[in-house]
Write a structure and sequence with these properties.
Helix content is 47%, strand content 2%. The chain is an all-alpha fold and 190 residues long. It has 3 domains: 1-47, no CATH class; 51-147; 152-186, no CATH class. Helix 2 crosses helix 3, helix 4 packs antiparallel against helix 7 (132-147) and helix 6 (116-126) crosses helix 7. The longest helix is centred in the last third of the chain and has 16 residues, at 132-147. The radius of gyration is 23 Å and the shape is elongated. It starts with 13 loop residues before the first helix and ends with a helix.
């Protein structure tokens, strides 16, 4: 029996899941009495709302600039409320016109490594009438809102009159190809 099937050690095996159920008539509920903590340890049960999103946002924010709430993802996790529609799942759902439960599927897929192509696939699966072009546009919008966009600023010695402008990855590549130089030669690190 594989009891913990997620990164956060959440149970996934059906019989094991019923062990925490207090209803005595449920099959598997007798398993609860068989679980014992090792000497000097105790078992603690907890239900942490959006635990995986919290962990992912803390790790992402620590990587970016060591401040929780520094990314759109972290900010929505930190300050978003389901009741007023500002939590990650509600924002994602509104952005692309899907249900909150469908948005949860996409958001959890993303924190476990799914990228934009998989999000496009899920959007088309949720709405079979959606075209590939529309799915791509909606996925791009969703990633922009919840992840942000990486912008590049020119180094001081490159084109002084354009110093105040920032560039997307695509725009930065265009400037690099114009001048035949690498991004490291022209731009500050994002």
């Amino acid at each position: 029996v594989v009891v913990c099937g997620t990164l956060t050690r959440r149970a996934v095996e059906p019989t094991w899941m019923t062990a925490s159920n207090a209803l005595g008539e449920r099959v598997g509920s007798e398993l609860r009495a068989m679980i014992k903590a090792p000497p000097a340890y105790c078992l603690v049960g907890a239900d942490v709302d959006s635990q995986e999103l919290w962990i992912a946002s803390i790790i992402g924010d620590a990587y970016l600039n060591k401040q929780h709430g520094a990314t759109p993802f972290g900010w929505m996790t930190l300050s978003g409320q389901k009741s007023d529609g500002t939590d990650m799942h509600s924002v994602t759902a509104k952005a692309v016109g899907i249900s909150r439960n469908q948005a949860k599927v996409i958001n959890y897929a993303r924190i476990y490594g799914a990228g934009q192509p998989f999000a496009e696939h899920l959007l088309k699966q949720f709405n079979p009438g959606m075209s590939s072009t529309e799915a791509k546009q909606k996925a791009s919008k969703m990633f922009s809102i919840t992840k942000g966009k990486r912008l590049y600023m020119l180094k001081k010695d490159v084109l002084p009159n354009l110093m105040q402008r920032t560039y997307t990855k695509y725009g930065a590549k265009e400037v690099c190809s114009l001048y035949g130089k690498s991004a490291e030669d022209i731009f500050e690190k994002p």
